[in-house]
Structure formats: C-alpha cells, structure tokens
Write a structure and sequence with these properties.
Rossmann fold; five-stranded mixed beta sheet; globular; Alpha-Beta Plaits; Jelly Rolls; 596 residues; single chain; 3 domains; 26% strand; alpha/beta
Length: 596
C-alpha cells in the first residue's frame, strides 16, 4: 500500500490547484447535432486489397480510365462531379464531389456507382465525425470520477498493482496542446487531417499533431450550426488517460505511467471517416501510404468521436486490422440519448462501446444506450463534471488550465486508461480478453442505467482479473446435438468451462445453447470458427432480447459476455449463426467455450 499512501497527499494538492485554475465553460449539456452533409465519397474496388500490414496494394495506382468514366457518368445522373483525391490504407479510394451534399444524395450516388460497375466492392459517403463531449460549469475541485464509492472508477487501489508502465495509448482526436501536466507523456504522433480547411493549420497531413484550435463561426459547419470556441478536446481526453500523477500539480491520469501517441483526425467541424480509418490503421502499427511508420504502435486506441448511421465498411475494415495487430479499440457511445445502433463507430463490431454515467452511477441524461454498449464509465452529468487538462484559448492556443467537461468522450478515456493498466499487468492479453474482463468485472449499477452494458468499469477488479484471470475453467468437451435451431430446442450446458464441438450444417443453420446462469455470475462465451469460415455469436435473455453480439471476420474468434446482477438464476441463450464460408461435417466445424 506504500504507493497508494504516497499518491493521496499529492491528490489533495491537485485539488487545491484545480480550484484556482479552473476555467468557466458553457453551462449545460448542449445537444450534439450530427453533420449530415459531406463533399467526399469512398469507393473500394474488389481487386484492391490491403496487405498484411494494412497498406493498400492496388489502391496506390490511379483509377483506370474506364472505371473513372463509369464514376463520372454516375455523377452526372445527380449533377455531381467526381474528382480523384487519394487512396487510404483499407484499399479504398477517396473522391471529392463538387461541394457539400446531403448524405442521402451521396448514398444514392454510391448505389448508382455500384450498379454501373460490378468491380466495385462498396461505395459509401465519407461521413464527417465529431467529438463526443459537451461542456458544463466545472464547480468541483476533486476527481470524484476516480474515487467516489457510488459513481467512481474505484481507481486508487488499482494503482497498487499497475500504473500503465510500458503501455502506449493512441488518442485519436483533435491533437494535443503542450501542458505542464502532460509533460513527457506524449510520443511522436501524426496529423491525418487531409483537408487544410478542417485542419486549420494551413496544410494537409503532416507529422505535427498539435492542436491549433477548432473554433467555428455560426453556420460554418452546417446550416444553423452554432458558433463554438476551440474545444481542446484531445488535450482533455489525454489528461484523463495519462496526466502525470503524484507531481503536486493539476490532475491525475488513470494510467499515469503509460505513454500517449497523439493522432489528429478532428478539426474545424469534425473529421472525415477516411482520415479516421487511416489513423486507426497507423496507430495500431499498420502501414499507410505516404506516412512514416509509427515507431510506437498502441495497444489501446481511444476514439472519443462519432457520427450517425450504421458502421461503414471503411471503418470496420480499419478496426478489424487494428484488432488483428493486438490493439483494443475503445469508442464513445455518443451523446444523443438514443440507441447506439445508429451511432458509428460505436456500433462497429469488435469495439468496446462506452456509455456515460453520472455521480449517482445512473445513466447520464445525454448518453446513448442499447444492446451494443459494452460497459459504462463516469462521464459526468448535472452539476458533476469530469475534470482534466485543457487550454485557456478561445480561438488560438492560450495558457495551460483545467476544466470540467461532460460526455461519453469523457467516459471513454477512463476505460482506455483501465485497459492500459490491464496490459501493463499482463502484456500477453488479447483484445477479446481485455473486453471480456472489463465486462465481467464491471460492478452493478447503483442507479438506473438501462442499456449501459454489463456495469460500471471497476479498475481494481479489472486489473486483478488481468493478473490472475486469463484462464477460464476447464470443463467437459461435448458435441452439439441437432436439432437446436430454436431457443425451445437449445442444447443445455450446465457445467462452467464446457467446450462444445459444433457444426454449421448449411448456410441457413443456426445453433442455440442454453445456460441457467447463477445469480452474481457472468457468462463468457468464446466461439472459434474453422479458418475459412465466418460465423457470428449472440447472447439473448429468456425473453429473446439481444444482450450482446460479436461479428468478427473469417477465421476470427468471437466472444460475448453477459452478467446476471439479480438474486436468482437467469436463462441465457447463446447463438451461433452462419455468415460465410464452409458448411457440413468437414468444412463447417467450430468450437464454443462457455464459462461463468
């Protein structure tokens, strides 16, 4: 406990510093409005694929004349011109349109392009994402979000076992401002904003990820958009992840001995999907054409950003690549008090989607929710905000300061920081193990938080699980028994640690397994398909409500978990579904491990 005692006095000094340094920011959690226009479209051809490191092989070449002619004719149908811009690491091309168009118009253009050219794998709008924070008056001179027994992260006792040493976290955001409380915490990053207008720095992509400010005038982002001062959003997020601690200054970071790679993707009015996808690839150690290799690949990627709509193919491809390189992708659920199924990239497969709670431990009034949310963490609500590092400039950079913000943007770096603590404690963890442990160790909500995942992330319990819980119980191995295509005919699994040998009999097959989950236990299910097949994994309650899903790619393991926070046993149905690949006794094999 020596370390814990040494930290607490410093934290008292930090509180005093905060009370003197806090700036006043706009009161109230203003509604986040998604940007529904874009001036770009992404086109991916079937013969353009990324290699094993993420670099696009065929995408580097210019578009062939016959293909470009088909794109041009599709554009003419809707009064749009289509100009080639650049290729991205997923193998896709980005094209500029003649001005901003509504997303629905660009979706129609995409459909027309695909109809005219069967060589196109997909076409989709290059949507503009925005950061997921809203500001509130910072009245508090303490970081309740770490220590509060009801609504906090239960962080200090985790520091006795891990401080994040040796782990790299990528903060994919607005960039960074130099700050005394972040001194020495940043490694070399990159600016992936390809538009000089959005970047607000006079150029496109470059090696300088510093934040020049993202102030906008009224109507600058879309018709009726409000004026807004520079947010310094990435700097605030970075402080929560890894601000220096026990230095008698400012605030503490969750993983204060971790290092951060600042990756700039958001500027004035947000940032493009294509730039964010390249940033995800590069941050996790993949190759992006024209960009120097990342000398410090990140084990944890923090994306406190998002927009509306389904998960797009461009982002999902980048996320799949990051996960294949061993990186955990943590994403803000969004601030629109709606189902996260309509908020991207939180609704993408393989991410850890984070909802926000307030000091009471209940769902923050603005937080998105739904079955795709994995866990929750403190994001602030009402008069309680998350305090972190900031800058005093309203437009251009000013001096160091601290402020309280609210949002799922603020909840997300809490979870990213805890993931860094887990990796420092057990470097061999996989992304699926990190997600499973975060979900299974999360504590029950002390207040109403429907659709907020398995619970509030518990830093101490998660670190303990990482140190001693990387193995699951060993149980019997059994064969699937057909027919089990409905919940009524589901195979009953009654022993924790059971491995099921299953078979996808046909492309329409689906297999159900029933677990009577004891009170207080968390079900963990891991399904591994054969190497040439893609099967997906879902878990439902007794009423048939979807609780969790995993939809990874060919040959990749899917894992889900579901906690029973009640006082009696509760039924869970685990379902394996065919998506693509082999079928039958030889080519349709998979294994399913069920533990609780």
């Amino acid at each position: 406990m020596k370390q814990s005692r040494s930290i607490h006095p410093a934290m008292l000094k930090m509180c005093a510093a905060i009370s003197l340094a806090l700036v006043t920011v706009t009161a109230g959690a203003a509604e986040q409005k998604f940007i529904v226009e874009t001036d770009r479209i992404i086109v991916k051809y079937k013969d353009s694929v990324p290699d094993s490191k993420g670099a696009a092989k065929a995408a580097k070449a210019a578009i062939k004349a016959d293909r470009k002619a088909k794109l041009d004719r599709a554009g003419q149908e809707f009064g749009m011109t289509v100009a080639e811009s650049h290729a991205i690491a997923t193998g896709a091309h980005v094209f500029k349109l003649n001005g901003r168009k509504h997303l629905k118009e660009v979706e129609k253009l995409a459909a027309e392009m695909m109809a005219r050219d069967p060589d196109i794998e997909y076409a989709e709008p290059d949507r503009i994402m925005t950061h997921m924070a809203t500001a509130n008056d910072p009245y508090y001179a303490q970081q309740w979000h770490y220590t509060d027994a009801t609504g906090g992260l239960r962080l200090p006792t985790a520091w006795d076992k891990s401080t994040g040493l040796g782990v790299v976290v990528a903060v994919i955001d607005t960039g960074y401002r130099p700050h005394a409380d972040l001194s020495g915490q940043h490694l070399a990053g990159y600016d992936f904003i390809s538009s000089a207008t959005i970047g607000n720095d006079g150029n496109g992509r470059d090696s300088d990820p510093s934040d020049p400010g993202d102030q906008v005038a009224a109507g600058e982002c879309y018709a009726g958009s409000p004026a807004r001062n520079s947010s310094w959003h990435g700097t605030h997020v970075a402080g929560t992840v890894a601000a220096k601690t026990n230095n008698s200054l400012g605030v503490a970071g969750v993983a204060y001995n971790a290092k951060m790679v600042p990756v700039r993707v958001l500027g004035k009015c947000g940032g493009y999907t294509s730039d964010i996808a390249d940033a995800i690839t590069w941050s996790s150690g993949g190759t992006v054409s024209g960009v120097p290799a990342n000398a410090n690949p990140a084990k944890v990627l923090n994306l406190s950003l998002g927009g509306s709509g389904a998960c797009d193919a461009t982002t999902q491809t980048a996320i799949n690549g990051a996960r294949s390189r061993g990186s955990v992708v943590v994403v803000a659920a969004g601030n629109d008090n709606m189902n996260v199924s309509n908020a991207s990239p939180a609704n993408c497969s393989g991410v850890i989607a984070v909802a926000a709670t307030g000091k009471t431990g209940g769902r923050a009034s603005y937080s998105n929710y739904g079955t795709l949310v994995d866990v929750a963490a403190p994001g602030g609500d009402g008069s309680y905000s998350v305090i972190s590092t900031l800058n005093s400039g309203t437009s251009a950079p000013g001096s160091d300061n601290y402020a309280g913000y609210q949002g799922t943007s603020m909840a997300t770096p809490h979870v990213a920081g805890v993931a860094a603590l887990m990796f420092a404690a057990k470097p061999t963890l996989t992304p699926d193990q990190v997600e499973s442990m975060l979900k299974s160790t999360a504590r029950a909500f002390p207040a109403t938080c429907s659709g907020c995942g398995t619970g509030i992330v518990d830093a101490t319990a998660a670190v303990n699980a990482a140190i001693g819980g990387t193995t699951t119980p060993t149980g019997p191995t059994v064969n699937e028994t057909e027919s089990n295509n409905t919940t009524g005919t589901a195979n009953l699994v009654s022993t924790s640690g059971t491995t099921v040998n299953g078979v996808m009999g046909s492309s329409t097959d689906t297999d159900y397994f029933r677990v009577d989950l004891p009170a207080g236990k968390t079900l963990s299910a891991a399904m591994t398909p054969n190497s040439s097949s893609d099967y997906d994994l879902y878990v439902y309650n007794s009423a048939g409500t979807l609780l969790s899903r995993s939809e990874n790619g060919t040959g990749a393991m899917d894992s889900v978990s579901s906690a029973n926070t009640g006082t009696t046993a509760s039924i869970r149905y685990v379902r394996v579904v065919y998506y693509s690949g082999g079928t039958g006794a030889t080519s349709g094999k998979y294994t399913l491990k069920l533990s609780w």
